[in-house]
Design brief:
By secondary structure, the protein is of the alpha/beta class. It is 57% helix and 12% strand. The chain binds ligand LCLJCK34, 4-methyl-5-hydroxyethylthiazole phosphate and magnesium ion. 4-methyl-5-hydroxyethylthiazole phosphate binds next to helix 16. GO terms for molecular function: magnesium ion binding; thiamine-phosphate diphosphorylase activity. Pathway: Cofactor biosynthesis; thiamine diphosphate biosynthesis; thiamine phosphate from 4-amino-2-methyl-5-diphosphomethylpyrimidine and 4-methyl-5-(2-phosphoethyl)-thiazole: step 1/1.
């Protein structure tokens, strides 16, 4: 049996058979070029196989992480998750470079001779949608990190330990990403949304439904049930109906203030203000798949909405409102500050109507949330259309 030694000479690092180590040392001493060592290395077939496995698995893991990173970046537009995957890629590459010689990895590669590339599997070419791509990439990342960890043990236990930590982090981030994929339809609709209407419960369900249908047709993208005067039973029953209709129309339905009702009625999400439950609690109540919106009145609140995991923000009050009384206004200056810093979809709110909409747009906003401008208009559908047409 061939004796194995830990070797750290020139470009040969790791555990090798004694003859390889001796040859490496001699080559080092002689200042010889590494090709001699590579030749010997290539002749050690089991070692070469280990390097081939590691090389293939490192590539697979890196490509998989990149696939997930692109989804987090371009579909979810989630900067935190994007950064997490980027860090995993970076840390994997740092660990690999510390323990493995790139020359040996490259020298072991033999793609034309890889029997695995000739095994056809149709499912490799079938992905129904982005969620299929994400699921496949997540599983590839997890498997290949495990492979690197296992075979890495034969090179250096410290490599295996580092990759194990990376694998645990990857599990966590993959789960966060996969849970969000199903929401990506909702988040996609949210990002496309421009006109947000806060609707009351109306005197009857029929009038409520008629209003949602008409306003959806006129361009309202998001409906929020905001009615502080009706009982919970009415809020719940209107929410059940609105959630269903909005889904059928490709619009979003959000419940004001009440995560419990949002969940019970299967709404798309909930909107809370600074006086309601903290956003972390709201998120734990509605889960990762529902939208959580948060009211903001200052740049600091915008920053904490972003770090706290809000999906969108309401920004205001901009102007004096007939719907709600305020002592102070954030105004258009606040909108300008938000426009230059926030990555979240941001809706200006408070007294916005056709007479002052241009000031909101000039401040850099193309999303507004309104009540009175539409509710109190002689021709609500016409006003909704006119507002929408200006929000490009
Ligand atoms: C889109 C949107 N933005 C802000 C608000 C205001 O919420 P909040 O501060 O909680 O005030 P109330 O609506 O509860 O009176 C909102 N509802 N929607
Ligand atoms: C709920 C709320 N929060 C800030 S302004 C506002 C009322 C929005 O209604 P309007 O568009 O009539 O001012
Ligand atoms: Mg509120």
């Amino acid at each position: 049996m061939c004796e194995s030694l830990k070797c750290d000479a020139g470009s040969v690092k790791g555990v090798f058979s004694a003859d390889v180590c001796v040859a490496a040392k001699i080559a080092d001493l002689a200042g010889s070029v590494s090709s001699f060592l590579l030749l010997i290395f290539m002749n050690s077939s089991s070692l070469r196989a280990i390097y081939r496995i590691l090389d293939a698995s490192i590539n697979r893991a890196t490509e998989g992480v990149r696939t997930l990173e692109e989804f987090a970046r371009f579909d979810l537009e989630d900067s935190k998750l994007t950064e997490s995957f980027k860090t995993i890629r970076h840390d994997l590459s740092t660990s690999v470079n510390r323990f493995l010689s790139r020359d040996q990895l490259l020298a072991s590669r033999d793609t034309p001779g890889d029997v695995g590339t000739k095994i056809e599997n149709d499912s490799e070419y079938e992905r129904a949608d982005a969620s299929g791509v994400v699921a496949a990439a997540a599983s590839r990342v997890q498997q290949s990190l495990r492979v690197i960890e296992e075979y890495g043990k034969t090179i250096d236990a410290a490599l295996a330990k580092e990759v194990e930590q990376i694998r645990y982090r990857a599990y966590h981030h993959c789960a966060s990403l996969e849970l969000r994929v199903d929401t990506s339809d909702r988040l996609g609709l949210l990002r496309q949304s421009r006109l947000y209407f806060l609707i009351d419960a109306h005197a009857s369900e029929e009038a409520f439904v008629l209003s949602i249908r008409g306003l959806s047709d006129a361009g309202v993208d998001i409906f929020q049930l905001r009615d502080k005067a009706v009982d919970d039973r009415t809020l719940y029953s209107r929410s059940v109906v609105a959630a269903k209709i909005a889904r059928g129309l490709g619009r979003l339905f959000i419940v004001n203030d009440r995560p419990d009702i949002a969940v019970a009625a299967d709404a798309d999400g909930v909107h809370v203000g600074q006086e309601e439950l903290p956003i972390s609690i709201v998120r734990s109540m509605v889960g990762p798949r529902r939208i959580v919106g948060l009211s903001t009145h200052s740049v600091d609140l915008v920053d904490s909405a972003e770090s706290g995991g809000a999906d969108y923000i309401g920004c205001g009050p901009v102007f004096s409102s007939r719907t709600k009384q305020f002592d102070q206004y954030a105004g258009t200056e606040f909108l300008k500050q938000v426009a230059s810093r926030s990555h979240l979809p941001a809706f200006a709110i408070g007294g916005i109507d056709l007479t002052n909409l241009s000031q909101v747009i000039d401040a850099g906003f193309n999303r507004v949330a309104v009540t009175g401008a539409i509710r109190d208009a002689e021709h609500p559908l016409l006003v909704a259309r006119q507002i929408k047409s200006q929000l490009l």
